[in-house]
Amino acid sequence: MKSAAMQKVPEDRSHAPVAQAAAIRDVLIVDDSRAHLKLLASILTRWGFEVTQASSGEEALWHLEAKKFDLVLSDWVMPGMSGIELCERCRALSGESYLYFILLTSKSEGDDVARGLAAGADDFLSKPIDRNELQARIAAGERLIAMQRAVVEKNQLLEHTLDELQGLYDGIARDLVEARRLQQSLVPERFRRYDEGDVSLLLQPSGHVGGDLVGAVQAGHRQLGLFAIDVSGHGIASALLTARLAGYFSGRTPEHNIALVPSAAGGHEIRKPEDICLGLNALIIGDMETELYFTMLFAKCDLTTGEIEIAQAGHPNPLIQRCSGEIAFPGEGGMPIGLIEEPMFGTIRLKLEPGDRLMLYSDGFTEQVDPEGEMLEEQGLARIAGLQADTRGGDFIEGLIWHLADHAGDGDFDDDLSAVILEYAGPAGRT
């Protein structure tokens, strides 16, 4: 029956070979009819394909497990394993390369076609076979396989690129961990005790590194300078500027500390806060090629009298917590540093009494939002500071952080948190 069917296919040598592309080269033909196998093999070989023959589904599986093929042409009806069963077994075989599967059949009913598609067949070719149709079906398979291989190549390239990126990311992550340690070393002491009071410092970046800086500069036994800085943006660029600014406040080299000037009596004294801001602004505008800017509070404290002069350069208003429990946020705003050549800075003057607390902090506190998107603002900060009125030093800071996390609804903060806190004991010192 099959031989008769194949005899209807005239051998026409006028057919041009299939345009050989790299997509399909190795073809496996499966049929229990030797005559059918011989004729198909002859046609495909003349068209330039490498052809392997199998007379049963079981033999075809053996070839498929031993070699990679691009195309299978299989008869549907065969003794033992049918073409549709062979197709199902082929699809179960693993491999990145796609195997194009054409069923050769006299079946044309919709249910039969649906069964073949469900088994994984890509196309069907009716008997008796027409060479032009066979050529067209193979060309369609070549297009699909070429696209599939292009996708595989792109996926391999993408995977290779992702591996490289992962390596770079891992290296950056290690560098950022080290950078975080180095940035934390900019504030080596988180608590300093003086005869007239205590200073506590907080520096907590929201990411690996941040753009905040806090610190204290002492001049003699009477003067103390406190500063809080918040560089615009986040990440490495901000952290680099922060590190450079830290060098301008280095207490190890008084002659290079921008906050200190020689005093008439010898030694050094704290520079006027507004002059410190102007000096930093000149450095940013004139010497640093950067689009970054920063806000700052610098407080010049007279520990003997409790008098404090603060220059405000766009930084949040300082918090004053009196020993009576009263809380205030004095301030005039002022211009950030690094935006224009001749900025105007705000000036705050106040006097601390024994038991009072001064807190310079970043906007990471007041701009922290709750789950509904409402910011804490000064009123909220006053509330949580009031709840911590009876605590001191590190305990006060830990209490602030705990209440801030409660406001946020989790332990993740939107911005860097920094603060420097002076708890004034008075000129008589401690009893």
Chain-wise SSE layout:
Elements: H1 2-7, E1 26-30, H2 34-46, E2 50-54, H3 57-66, E3 71-75, H4 83-92, E4 100-105, H5 110-119, E5 123-126, H6 131-184, E6 191-194, E7 197-204, E8 212-219, E9 223-231, H7 236-248, E10 260-262, E11 268-270, H8 273-287, E12 294-302, E13 307-313, E14 319-321, E15 327-328, E16 346-351, E17 357-361, H9 363-366, H10 377-387, H11 393-408, E18 417-424
Parallel strand pairs: 1-2, 1-3, 3-4, 4-5
Antiparallel strand pairs: 6-7, 7-18, 8-9, 9-12, 10-11, 12-13, 13-16, 14-15, 14-17, 17-18
Helix pairs in contact: 3-4, 10-11
Give, in order, the helices and strands.
HEHEHEHEHEHEEEEHEEHEEEEEEHHHE
Quaternary state of this entry equals single chain
What is the CATH-assigned architecture of the largest domain? Answer: 4-Layer Sandwich
Low-confidence stretches: 1-21
CATH superfamily of the largest domain: PPM-type phosphatase domain
> Mean pLDDT across all residues, rounded?
85
Supply the number of structural domains. 2
- Record the strand order, biggest sheet: 6-7-18-17-14-15
- By CATH reckoning, the class of the largest domain would read Alpha Beta
| CATH fold-level label of the largest domain | Phosphatase 2c, domain 1
Estimate the helix proportion, in percent.
25-40%
Terminal-residue CA separation: 116 Å
Report Rg.
Answer: 40 Å
The shape is: rod-shaped
Beta-strand share of residues: 15-25%
Q: What is the overall number of helices?
A: 11
Structural class: alpha+beta
- Main β-sheet description: 6 strands, antiparallel
For the secondary structure, the number of strands is 18
